[in-house]
Amino acid sequence: MGHFTTMFHGLSKSFPGRKGRKSRGCGGGREAAEAMAKDAKKNDRLLCSTGVLKSDGSSNFASVCSRRGRKGVNQDCCTVWEGFGCQEDMMFCGVFDGHGPWGHFVAKRIRESMPSTLLCNWQESLTQTSPPEPDSDSAIDRCNFNIWKRSYVKTCAVIDRELKQQRKIDAYSSGTTAVSIVRQGEMMVIANVGDSRAVLASTGDDGSLVAVQLTVDFKPNLPQECKRIVESNGRVFCLDDEPGVHRVWLPHDESPGLAMSRAFGDHCVKEFGLISVPEVTQRRITSRDHFVVLATDGVWDVMSNQEAVEIVSSTPNRADAAKCLVKWAARGWKHKRRGIAMDDISAICLFLHPSPADK
């Protein structure tokens, strides 16, 4: 209970606004969040490129790597923000996979706008929520998760709408996926739009390392996704030369052929079943949990969840974890997908506990 109250008072000082007043939007709160992001970057607490983020006194350690494929400009991008929203126990991680002619611009735009907009909506929702009765930790967890879920859903709607209104970026037939995590103390909130993926490495009952998939790959052939698209007059089918690869198509045109059923942008098919609504889940971190891998399909198209966590776990230096994973994925493209141009490959390896060397 004390933690919930501390968050409320701390954020109330950081953002403009009054408790109980309905807001028409983030307004000055979003400007404050964007200022926090700039300050975090200035103080090396926000990383948007290949590298490592480790802050003194934090149990988090993030290794990040992005590699261009053989299809042109790298349309993947990542971000890690330690001390998210000036909260010492919070971190934001996100991986974004652009597609289409303007995909790299769309991905970078969503990378820039999602954290600050989410932070603003979270604060707004927090100030409008009465703290739960301190009857149990589970009640507090449920309340906190509901706040995050509402904030994520609102954020995704807002930034997708703003993307459509952007004059400098053509998102009509270009878009991006987004998988992100907010770590808040010993709780993780995971949000996913598209077919990038989050996988947790945990210790099983027999003591072995086990890969736990935290997200759903939103492909058009999933029953609930296909049903929504078809009911919206969109079409889902595979091309003759791509058996098993289901794509989303316009009602009377052989385009755009999206291989995912949820994405930001791609406004040409937003009326035909494509959505940017995130799946939001939570997981409490335990001593059995070791790290989370957030990665684009450039990784998952050529290796299993288990292979990925074993590669990361076997890397001697945590700082090299993401680079090592990306390197092995590139090898996978060379040997398993011969004749197919290698996709962009990006990953964040977020370690959840200090290593023995840090203690």
Automatic annotation (TrEMBL):
It catalyses: O-phospho-L-seryl-[protein] + H2O = L-seryl-[protein] + phosphate; O-phospho-L-threonyl-[protein] + H2O = L-threonyl-[protein] + phosphate. PROSITE patterns: PPM_2 (PS51746). GO terms for molecular function: metal ion binding; protein serine/threonine phosphatase activity. Keywords: Hydrolase, Magnesium, Manganese, Metal-binding, Protein phosphatase. Its EC number is 3.1.3.16. The keyword Flavoprotein does not apply. GO terms for biological process: negative regulation of growth; response to water deprivation. Residues 61-352 form the PPM-type phosphatase domain. It comes from the Eukaryota. InterPro entries: PP2C, PPM-type-like_dom_sf, PPM-type_phosphatase-like_dom. SMART domains: PP2Cc (SM00332). It is an enzyme of class 3 (hydrolase). Its cofactor is Mg(2+); Mn(2+). Belongs to the PP2C family. This is protein-serine/threonine phosphatase. It comes from Kalanchoe fedtschenkoi. The lineage of its organism: Eukaryota, Viridiplantae, Streptophyta, Embryophyta, Tracheophyta.
